[in-house]
Design brief:
By secondary structure, the protein is mainly α. It has 4 helices and no strands. It is elongated and about 60 Å long.
């Protein structure tokens, strides 16, 4: 059990981090631009129809992804709690804090911004929708994305991976 638990915790941490970061990049960099480009290029649709359909595709994708983020946040917290007795305590606590901030940002997007955006869109208040949409994008790109990178860096430091790079100080001794 002494060997299994830290391995499981590190695996859970890696999977949750990969799913969150990969999903954020996939939807933001691939799905959203492509949905708008394809539908706007359709001669059968007006620009307004194309934007509405693409918005539904991206919005529905983000709604599903938000649930994945909740799960990833919970797994990150669980993995860090499991690692407390086995890894550098300070780095695990830092990872717990960043994981909590990430989960908090996901909850903000899912329970506050998304319903407010939907209400504004339903009421035809496109000015408010646009303002909230830009806030959603900024939260994803300027808050979540950097926090995910920081979390990956903390994980690398915690697991001693950085020790193999001479210019990066390691918090864990290098093991061969």
């Amino acid at each position: 059990m002494k060997v299994f638990l830290p391995i499981l915790a590190r695996w859970l941490h890696s999977v949750a981090l990969s799913v969150w970061l990969g999903g954020l990049l996939a939807i933001g960099a691939l799905v959203a631009p492509k949905a708008f480009a394809v539908l706007r290029g359709s001669p059968e649709l007006t620009l307004a129809q194309a934007n509405t359909l693409a918005g539904h595709v991206v919005g529905d994708s983000l709604a599903l992804f938000t649930y994945a983020c909740y799960g990833c946040g919970a797994l990150l917290l669980l993995a860090n709690f499991l690692l407390l007795p086995y890894a550098n305590r300070l780095l695990v606590i830092r990872s717990l804090i960043v994981s909590g901030l990430l989960l908090g940002s996901a909850l903000l997007l899912g329970f506050v911004l998304t319903p407010a955006m939907e209400a504004a869109r339903t009421q035809g208040d496109l000015v408010t929708f646009d303002r909230l949409h830009h806030l959603y994008e900024r939260t994803s790109t300027l808050v979540q994305f950097p926090l995910l990178l920081v979390l990956a860096w903390i994980g690398a430091m915690r697991d001693g991976i950085a020790a193999s790079f001479p210019s990066v100080p390691s918090a864990a001794p290098h093991r061969r």
